[in-house]
Structure formats: C-alpha cells, structure tokens
Amino acid sequence: MWVSWKALFRGPHNLALGPTGDALSYHAGSPFSTRDHDPRGRPRPCAVAYTGAWWYRNCHYANLNGRYGVPYDHQGINWYPWKGFEYSIPFTEMKLRPQRD
C-alpha cells in the first residue's frame, strides 16, 4: 500500500530516532514541495534553494533529498540535530510501515 506524500507528515508520529535527535518534528504538517511545485507559492521555493524535494517548512532541519557530498551552505544531505548544516550525510534511508489501528 502506497502512502500519499501529502499525508505522510500529518497526524501523530512514532519516531525511533536514537542518538541523532529529532529533525522531523519541525516539518510536521508541511506540504511536500518540489522544484516545479511549491504549494506555498514562495518567490524562491526551498526545493529550488536546497535542490531537493521535501516537506519544507521554512526551510529545513532535515533534508534527506539534498545534494550528495556538498558540505556547505545547507545544500547537502542534512540532519541538523546530529551533524548540523555543514555536513553532508553519505547515506540515508527512510523506512515506513503501515499504521496499526
């Protein structure tokens, strides 16, 4: 069963974060944005500024779709509470499981 991108960050979440900290709560309720579709209609969309598609708020604490290997100016694959914005994470993966009733 596929989950709607728009619905992913709505509702309560059970995040297993471990020692890396919580960078996703900041994005809760944000619409999914791409470089050619910004639901908020910003003059310079975050998806353009940070070259990724994500649930940008203003703009991000986590950006797992950033530019690989770019460790400066918030452009890389970032998880702010863990390594900050000036470190591009070399590998990430997101795992989703169905919500139980």
From TrEMBL:
It comes from Bambusicola thoracicus. Residues 18-100 form the Fibrinogen C-terminal domain. Pfam families: Fibrinogen_C. This is Fibrinogen C-terminal domain-containing protein. It comes from the Eukaryota. GO terms for cellular component: extracellular space.
